Fold this protein.
Amino acid sequence: MTEALLALADHDESIVRTRHEVAHPASQADLDATVAELAAATAAMRALDEDRAPLTARAGELERDATSARDRASAIARRLDESTGAGRELEAMAHERDALVARGDQLDEELLGIYELLEPLDEQLEKLRATALDAAARRERAEASVNDERSSATARLDALAAARVALAGAIDAATLARYDAAAARTGGIGAARLVNGRCGGCRLAVPAAIVDQLAHAPEGTIVVCDECGRLLTR
Ligand SMILES: [Zn+2]
């Protein structure tokens, strides 16, 4: 009887371990780490985008203004080419054309300054994008591993549950009820062997009187560990 009880306890230990594997697959830590990495990269990209936004908006304005100044300068240049003779009006047009060309150059210079500010931000963004892509790929693999591990552990748990029926059937109903109650209290394993005066379940020393009682009791005697409530056999 006590051998059957210990066999059931061993089996339940496997069930507890396997249930833990279902709840906490080994790759879960990898998955959590890659999810956190991806979130950090995404947050950094968003912050960088906020820094870039006013610069890219300003660059767009400068590009438009420079193009507009050059277009107007070209239009005036064409009219000048078509005009004949001299005069104040032509002089004023030439002056305006030169002013517009100078304005275009000035806008280009400011634009270069903006590009210089944007360059390191763009490089950072590129790096973050690569990091995010890499983290996303690793997250996908970790997710697949977690799912594989969980479904494999679930299949083993099902097999263990099926095999438990026969082991439990080898124990009389009253003892099994005591075992199950102890197992429910102690996280799934309801019996242990007494080893060197200690409970094999909670590892705590069992009072000498109980050790003595068990040592002299007939084969198959069961006592209860005061500390953890597991059924103890010798
Ligand atoms: Zn104990």
